[in-house]
Amino acid sequence: MPPLVCGLLTQTRERTVCGMLLGAGLSRVWPHHRAHRFFSHAVWSPDPLGLALARLVITVLVPGGAVTVAVDDTLFRRSGTKVWAASWFHDGSAASPTQVGFGNTWVLVGIVVRLPMLDRPVCLPVLARLVRKNTVSASRLWLTRRMVTALAAALPDRRLHVVADAAYAGRELRGLPARVTWTTRLRADAALYELAPPRTGRCGRPRLKGDRLPGLAALAAHAPFTPLRVEPVRAEHHRGHRHPPLPVMARSAPGRSPSSCCVRPPPTPAAAMTPPWSPPIPSPDRLRSSTGMPLAGRWKPRSRTPSRSSGSGRPVTGVPAPSSALSRSV
Prior knowledge:
Layout: H1 2-10, H2 17-23, H3 32-40, H4 47-61, E1 67-77, E2 87-90, E3 100-114, E4 121-130, H5 140-154, E5 160-163, E6 180-185, H6 216-222, E7 246-250, E8 260-264, H7 284-291
Parallel strand pairs: 1-5, 5-6
Antiparallel strand pairs: 1-3, 2-3, 3-4, 6-8, 7-8
């Protein structure tokens, strides 16, 4: 509803339904139940709007080449017993040691762009899905896979490079579109394997992976670390999909966060020396402070569509060498 959007942007106080009507100058013109019904009873979906926004962003700000897509989730703290899909979730930005909060968790998909007035990349959110416990939508990866697939279908002539943290890796990555690559962080206990041996010509299923390699800690202990240098390491067997991955280990400078390992697609020759750090992404809290999300405050089952779909980065100080002949098997 355009009047509610205008009221959302012009309202300087609480952005509730009544506040939006007040900001739009319609508090004495519209019956208030007309706006409340839009959020509580009407069947509507923000996906068409998000995909249209994505096409506009790509056309204006990413005129050519591949598109970098950033994925993350955020907790919007709520209170009350009638808030739809509210529950206890992990909150990485919480000040308490427990890092747990009550509210709605949203999975956000944004397009990373470079603006002429800034010297760093920014992420423009275009799609979002609500995490609902005890349903198939409780899986953040399940929601992300469907948003990325929809985004790839809306951009048929572009390649998508998806970057995400360790929570976004698993079986849902099987069968990704050929134009989509997925870069994620490896778990600390990730199992690494040699490349699959050649076929033996005998009956039976061929091997999908070779012999198991030592753990990440053992590999990192003997791996050469040279700043921004990429060299070959071994293969990694993952249950996600069969696209060849590129495991990359990063060791931070003394006093910084501990070492980590991520997996990304093999780079092109021109991008072989590109360090695999995540692009800077504006905090979802800053986005919420400017828009007052969520708009309506109360969520009910009838307000969703009938379908099931409903950091600042810093340079890596050391990169050991991933292999040019890597394979990821199912």
